[in-house]
Amino acid sequence: MNLKKFSLIALPLLMLGCSDPKVNTETTNTYQNYNGVDAQAVFGTVTYNEGIILPDSATLTVKLQDTSRQDVSAIVLAQQTIMLTSNAPWSFSMNYDPSIIKDKRNFTISVRIEVDGQLYFINKNRIAAFDGSAIKVIVSPVTGLKNTTI
């Protein structure tokens, strides 16, 4: 087995083994006919550059979406919500049904951090879901957050 194939297998396992036991994760797969047997995973980390500490009521939501169609809402293929009880960076991993992934479509990752239901951080750049490596997301504050004390 070559090093590239090994790293693609070992990295998700390593990330699972190093997860913070204080992080409460709940994964919701939103596509139909998911049987879990032939699932693939998309994974990565989320962080931010602001020098603030989020309260324990903060939640991180990561979505795998089909954003191919411009005139309709994105189709959510998988979603993970994490209660943020530790400091950044945070790891995510979402299973998806590979049979729903079609060529010539755009699949992206959408990330948001909310505190008590209010949006605080979001990714502002397009993040490709399948570029062959672990996804690294840096979220930015929403307008007006810089003057907000959490």
TrEMBL record:
What UniProt keywords are attached to this protein's entry? Lipoprotein
Q: Does the keyword Lipoprotein apply?
A: yes
Q: What is the lineage of its organism?
A: Bacteria, Pseudomonadati, Pseudomonadota, Gammaproteobacteria, Alteromonadales
Keyword check for Lipoprotein? yes
> Which PROSITE patterns has this protein been placed in?
PROKAR_LIPOPROTEIN
**Mind telling me what this protein is named?**
YbaY family lipoprotein
Organism for this UniProt entry: Psychromonas aquatilis
